[in-house]
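User: Second chain of the day. Same drill as before.
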Amino acid sequence: MGRHGYTDEPANDWKLIRWRGQVASAMRGRRGQGLLRDLLDALDAMPRKRLIAREFWNGEACALGALGERRGIDLISVDTEDYDRIADTFGVARQVVMEIEFMNDEAGAYRETPEERWIRMRNWVASELKENWPAPQTFRASRRTTDDSA
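Assistant: Same format as last time:
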């Protein structure tokens, strides 16, 4: 189990269906959409477009760490698995916090770079915003190439 609280254990189908419904409802709600909009702004404002996993801050930030930094919230002393405290701090349902932590930490490719994580998270956050928000720009990872002439 990661800091997002999700497990790899087989789930009761109805329990999982109810949980996904709670996540979807919390993400679509006013507070969830407000947090996502602020998160998108925080990601765009980062001077270095890099995100870490499994902790809020270590000199660099995860997605929620970047938002906390932008809002002036000290997250260093906050337990990354204290979902209720984090949710209260950000003013959202705990399901939103857990989903963002899961997406930040676990949804990427194996050996994802911090830059690739930033791109993936930025695109995911933008995709979760309702249509009435301004259309976000989509970022793509550039292909890595080697210069054979050097």
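The chain is about 50% helix and 0% strand.

User: Great, on to the next one.
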